[in-house]
Design the sequence.
């Protein structure tokens, strides 16, 4: 069961990271175009700011589960390095599975609710002259949060089982 959940969580994290890569490419292209349009043609775009904050936010939220999967988050190991491995695993299991996964699960539900409401109401960004639809941005947030929730659950179960994340990663 653990292997099935871990494979599923890893797959969702990988999919989210691919979306993050796409969002980074969109951000880069939009900023290059904006600089070119602004300084060469003296014609700034109405949409560059919106694309920038949406893409940048999406990159971070969509990438965080993959970073957890790869054990790339920064942490302070002063206390952790002095504890026995079983204690470390138990602390990590409790933190990931019983504290953080439920918290991110609630955030995921809220983000999905916002996405659905924005889609139904055709909500637009009200302070933007471009006024883009908001549901795609909210949906990317929800996907990132769901991926993080699943990855936290998988890593928490791995910790309780005494398995190192690096031993079960798929590339």
Sequence:
């Amino acid at each position: 069961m653990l292997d099935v959940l871990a494979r599923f969580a890893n797959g969702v994290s990988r999919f989210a990271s691919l979306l993050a890569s796409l969002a980074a490419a969109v951000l880069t292209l939009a900023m290059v175009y904006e600089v070119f349009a602004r300084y060469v043609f003296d014609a700034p775009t109405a949409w560059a700011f919106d694309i920038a904050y949406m893409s940048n936010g999406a990159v971070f939220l969509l990438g965080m589960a993959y970073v957890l999967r790869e054990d790339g988050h920064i942490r302070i190991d002063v206390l952790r390095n002095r504890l026995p491995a079983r204690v470390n695993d138990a602390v990590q299991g409790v933190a990931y599975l019983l504290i953080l996964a439920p918290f991110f699960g609630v955030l995921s539900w809220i983000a999905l609710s916002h996405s659905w409401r924005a889609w139904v109401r055709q909500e637009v960004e009200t302070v933007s002259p471009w006024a883009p639809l908001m549901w795609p941005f909210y949906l990317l947030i929800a996907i990132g949060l769901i991926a993080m929730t699943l990855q936290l659950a998988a890593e928490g179960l791995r910790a309780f089982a005494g398995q190192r994340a690096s031993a079960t990663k798929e590339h």
Observations:
- Residues 89 and 163 are 9 Å apart (CA to CA).
